[in-house]
Design brief:
FAD/NAD(P)-binding domain; 8-stranded mixed β-sheet; alpha/beta; D-Amino Acid Oxidase, Chain A, domain 2
Amino acid sequence: MTKYSIFSLARNAISYHQNWEQAWRSPEPQKQYDVIIIGGGGHGLATAYYLAKEHGIQKIAVLEKGWIGGGNTGRNTTIVRSNYLWDESAHLYEKSMKLWEGLSQDLNYNVMFSQRGVYNLGHSLQDMRDIERRVNANRLNGIDGYIVSPEEIKRAIPAINIDQGCRYPIMGASFQPRAGVARHDAVAWGFARGADKRGVDIIQNCEVTAINQSNGEVSGVETTRGTISSTKIGVVVAGHCSVLAEMAGFRMPIESHPLQALVSEPIKPVLDTVVMSNAVHGYVSQSDKGDLVIGAGIDSYNGYGQRGSFSSIEHTVAAIVELFPIFSRVRMNRQWGGIVDTTPDACPIIGNTPVKGLYFNCGWGTGGFKATPGSGWVFAQNVAKGEPHELNSAFALGRFVSGFLIDEHGAAGVAH
């Protein structure tokens, strides 16, 4: 480190970073925009970024009722993978994976994407049949993955318990080497800075209270900061999409549930990959800071709470401790809930709505974070062109009328 760098760090430390350049502007909302994106999470910011970058749209606003990254983007367990069963899901998530692999370079911002691999454990013969089916389907779609035995898992993860007499005996697993984790807040900040540099207005503390229409077409929104007009509006508000749909006069086949997660106190490095178990309803990785990041399932009730649920956490911790006995003396640091919007087929809704010019991107359930760049990329084209890209055409709202559902409950599981 140079002498100048040392003095620069010291000066900024003393000033509490007050002289640092802001990563993005905080402009006042204009009266009219070409496109309005409602929702300042990862998906919304990615949509705005790709609208500006790929489609050259000049006047874009992102409206966020709170602060950037304060919703589900900052409340997930950061897993990234693309090993979904059905072709439609696999292609969409693989597009996202390929964007992840070059995202830090594209944004010129380190999103800390770490391809440390993801293991999906099997605890029964039926689990292993399902795993074999999914791995074979992945490989036919050009997605990496293979099946590993308990002994191979043990060699890669010495701390794991493969005793066949335990409550959840491990019979094998699938492994996707290109999968991994990313830093959730860095993803939001990177897309926010990238969008801002391309002229996007990011407007925080601006809650949408009504969606205006004229002759069946969208005309703008009412917000806590005034009326803003636009003939194209994309809604990307994870967990609250049904509320926004009601404002527009239609219903979405969505339920919202709290999803539970927790982190431990920091410990020395012991787990350099991600371990998931749908049967156990738990998944665990270790962050760069050393804390264990543990995800649980969703609470069975509907709600918008973001608090931890003791019963869900107790169940998950018991299962994780059986998989990793050495974690039994590690103390939990904090726990929280995120809001997930779930659909009947565990797949998202991306596309047009009954209101012309109004587009929705929602229903990602527990798999939203991993899809962030791919979701924004396809939704940007949908909003810009007025019709879906081939990657998201199967995820139209109309599938719940036609019956062409995509059942990903097995592959979606508890991953977030």
